[in-house]
Design brief:
single chain; about 240 residues; alpha/beta; Rossmann fold; 7-stranded parallel beta sheet; about 45% helix
């Protein structure tokens, strides 16, 4: 299935702020049919509902609660685009006293939810013609940056899972997109000290829309990511056998 904005029905986790909100608004402004905004607090997307009306469908969604996952699958059974965006970050080095606890927290926030989301919505995408699954990864997936060791470790694991999904879903025709982003201007980036001078979250939406047209696995949305891609992309093509 080739997705264009006008035939997209999407579910986006963490749609109430940052990159998730920018993707939500980008899709709706481009003419998407509907966006299910999967968030813990339904009130946090009230402004989106006021702006876009019935094309925004808030869903209470917490990947640590199985009942919200199953409810989302029932409600959003018509989706052909799923964006796994929600995540956590906590500063830590490998030698900190709380290094293990920090890593565990970020694995539970960045990796296990990805797996649960994919297991829940993979069959939905298949039944709707294959569709697209987008995972928000990071330059930290391929390079550790102190003091983000726990975050880098969890994002490296998420990136590995994303590669696995790409292979697992070949037969059902689901395009998998891995967004390898540098610092993007979001509240989370600001709180981690990475937001100053960072590009706007809207560039991630632009990169995803381009990948829908080209069929690419990788999206390098910002200048820092594209500089790294000049070196990393040949490695990915040769060693991982992934073209972009």
């Amino acid at each position: 299935m080739t997705l264009q904005a006008s035939n997209i029905t999407a579910l986006i986790t963490g749609a109430n702020r940052g990159i998730g909100k920018a993707i939500t608004e980008g899709l709706l402004d481009a003419g998407a049919v509907k966006v299910y905004t999967a968030v813990r607090d339904l009130a946090s997307v009230r402004q989106l509902v006021q702006k876009y009306g019935e094309r925004v469908v808030p869903i209470e969604f917490d990947l640590s609660r199985e009942e919200t996952i199953q409810n989302a699958v029932k409600v959003a059974g018509d989706v052909n685009l799923v964006v796994s965006n929600a995540g956590v970050v906590k500063l830590s080095t490998p030698l900190d006293d709380d290094a293990v606890e920090s890593f565990k927290y970020q694995m539970e926030g960045n990796v296990y939810p990805l797996i649960n989301l994919a297991k829940a919505f993979g069959p939905v995408l298949k039944s709707n013609g294959g569709g697209v699954f987008v995972q928000m990864n990071s330059l930290a997936s391929i390079k550790n940056f102190l003091p983000f060791t726990g975050y880098s470790g969890s994002k490296a694991a998420a990136y590995a899972v994303t590669q696995g999904l790409r292979e697992a879903w070949v037969e059902q025709g689901t395009q998998v997109i891995s967004v390898i982003a540098g610092p993007i201007k979001t509240d989370m980036a600001d709180s981690a000290g990475m937001g100053e001078g960072a590009p706007p979250a809207s560039i991630v939406f632009d990169g995803i829309m381009k990948a829908l047209t080209t069929g690419d696995f990788f999206v390098y949305p910002d200048e820092m990511a594209r500089e790294v891609a000049k070196i990393y992309a040949p490695f990915a093509k040769s060693v991982l056998e992934i073209e972009s």
